[in-house]
Amino acid sequence: MYKGASQQKMNRITIDEYKKIIMATSTASNKRQDVQTDFLPLQGTDYVEFYVGNAKQAAHYYMSAFGFQALAYAGPETGIKDRASYAVRQNKLTLVLTTPLRANNEIADHIYKHGDGVKALALRVDDATSAWEETTKRGARSYMQPQKFIDADGEVVISGINTYGDTVHLFIERKNYNGQFMPGYREWNNPYYKPTDTGLLYVDHCVGNVGWNQMNPWVKFYQDVMGFKNILTFDDKDISTEYSALMSKVMSNGNGFVKFPINEPAEGKKKSQVEEYLEFYDGEGVQHRN
User: Fold this and answer.
1) Do 121 and 130 touch, CB atoms closer than 8 A?
2) pLDDT (0 to 100) of residue 16
3) Are 261 and 246 in contact (CB under 8 A)?
4) pTM of the model
């Protein structure tokens, strides 16, 4: 059954209804948690980074179709030798689209295996070093030890941990930075093209699809390693059709600013949409963000 603050029971909700329930879940119930004891205080999603085959084209797609504005660029012209990255923004929602400039590297390998897809869910923190230390000592596998990136506008500290599949969480500390985006980037602006805002405000949640019987282990990861709470649970009776079903648990940090639903397949007459994702993406990863 679906379990939430209201303990309302629901039968066979659609995927769209599932998304709306997650987005409608009040952060007020999360605020009842004692955030003073939160060892990983998160300020929200800083940005979502995609590894893509053509970053400039992808950036223009998000601008023309979804109303994002050009924000910043990094590449050989800014001293970055191995990639080209375009950052776009709409209100508090920032996307980074990254393409490798040569083969035989992590970015190229990711695209070869998965196609265009989310690599990093970057979370804003006050102290990236503490975030890395607290999560790795609780069992997280390090992706990136704390590093300082400095330019004339200040410094950004970044660290990171591995999660499901090839997905990573980056911890972004930018309290001492006043630049356009971060060191290594320069302002990217097209004065002749200003897309119309479509009303997107911020990242509400990012859904991860994991393999058979992997939902609960990853729920435990977020509980033990990041201090998240399970605020909603859906089983195969809640989210199903005649042919397809899935199970999901929604994890939230202490203040409710970051929510990560974790989905796994459930038995049905045909493949569930989670199974289809795992097959076509060739592994676990971020299915969608809202």
Assistant:
1) no
2) 58
3) no
4) 0.86
